[in-house]
Amino acid sequence: MTSRLNPYLSFDGDARQAMEFYEQVFGGTLALNTFGESGMPDPAFADKVMHAMLETPGGFTLMAADTPPGMEYRPGSNFSVSLSGDDATELRGYWEKLSAGGSVAVPLEKQMWGDVFGMCTDRFGVPWMVNISEPAS
């Protein structure tokens, strides 16, 4: 798998509706995972979207999630740039360069869904998400 760069949008509880709307606009295949499916114990947040990905016939990829409890939702700056793939060396290199001189919100480490993931804001104020998956066998 090659590395992928795409926008990642954050929502305040309506990610499912937004992504279903974008699916109608662009077509394609929408995959949704909820916080409850991932084991979040808070029943008030169980049906909210932990991760959504829309892949379109035209080659667009759009990802999104509802802002989890404890994180601030900031309209107008509710996006990140997502880097993902299975080339750990390449993606860790990007992470090191992007986070240098910036701030780290989530350290790049193994997460509950099994991938290595981190969130940082670079020195120019651009938020980034890096997700390293296991190579397909």
TrEMBL record:
InterPro entries recorded: Glyas_Bleomycin-R_OHBP_Dase, Glyas_Fos-R_dOase_dom, PhnB-like
Position of the signal peptide: none
Glyoxalase/fosfomycin resistance/dioxygenase domain residues: 4-130
Coiled-coil ranges (or none): none
The protein's name in its UniProt record: VOC family protein
Organism of provenance: Streptomyces coelicoflavus
